[in-house]
Amino acid sequence: MSHPAASVPAPSDGDAIVFVDLAAQQARIEPEVNARIAAVLAHRRFINGPEISELETELARRAGVGHCVAVGSGTDALLVALLAHGIGPGDAVFVPAFTYMASANAVILTGATPVFVDIDPARLTIDPDDLERRLSQVRAAGTLTARALMPVDLFGLPADYDRLDDIARRNALFMLVDAAQSFGARLNDRPVGCFGDATAASFFPSKPLGCYGDGGALFTNDAVRASRWRSLRHHGIGEDAMSSEHVGLNARLDSLQAAVLLAKLGIFDSELEARERVAQRYDARLTDVVQATAPRCPAAQSAWASYAVQVPRRDDVAAALKAVGVPTAVYYPHPLHLQPAYRRYAGDALPVAEAVSRSILNLPIHPYLAPGAIDRICDSLDAAISG
Ligand SMILES: *Cc1c(COP(=O)(O)O)cnc(C)c1O
Q1: Tens of pLDDT along 65-95?
Q2: Which end of the chain is more exposed for a tag (fewer CB within 10 A), N or C?
């Protein structure tokens, strides 16, 4: 199989700005993707093909853990990990209030109760001090058992695992990392995938490592946990495929998606480096322009799933950018505790999550964003804020 070029081709600066450029990436890896897909069409093992174990081996190596179990989506990964740990009714699972809705859905689908926790204003990930407060509240109320902690590596930046590990250990919490946005990131020179008891990744097309459909994976060093995940993703089967050992799901990754991911892994490291270069150019240009540039942490290397700034009059600024051809997004306009589906789980106000949801603005970021395009985005943002 041919090896794709190691460097990112220079895009022309005059091109229209897109929020996530999957076309440039596709052009770069087309022969590799086509060959991988052709191989699946030839062996026709569309489920459980040889691509699945090849992918699991490569992902486990990258994550620095003993076991990877590929699943159908990031949401499947979260749900399978919670179910496999026996999380269910009466259990409290601590989740940041500022995240994608799938984090809370997985908890609620098990029958457990999400306890929303505020975020750290600098890192935008779960605030360890507020987590300690919510733990005390749950204990004092006495109606739920504090069982699990689900930090989210928002926008690709790992959460504060130095402190979270300690809190999880002291409180005997199962720590499941929602790394849907952060596969490829590092903290203290260790790869995402090795933090906590289990890690869930998503390969939705727009994530830093995305397939051509839905996909996800779970990571752990615990062989017993991994074998339970393998059973749960496949209807709960035992050693013999016709014996039901657990109540399971159909949550498998298919061979075609694994083939696409294997092709993309050949350029993933160079794409992560290109994302970092884009982020650094944004940082340098925007420090004096916005209220806050995207969160960073000296001990971490983000996967840069998103580049999120904070600005005043956010909706006006976004509209002004749209008018000059600069696409933006708002992740997320509503913290989870204020969403209709989750209001019944809301406790106190969560002031940081609420304030950030009003000021956050996500700028285009992908490995193929040209320096000239970044400068245009920054100039437009400066004009929109001052105008
Ligand atoms: C994308 C995402 C998910 C869900 O992943 P899917 O693959 O779309 O199911 C979960 N949590 C977070 C934080 C996400 O960004």
Answers
A1: 999 999 999 999 999 999 999 999 999 999 9
A2: C
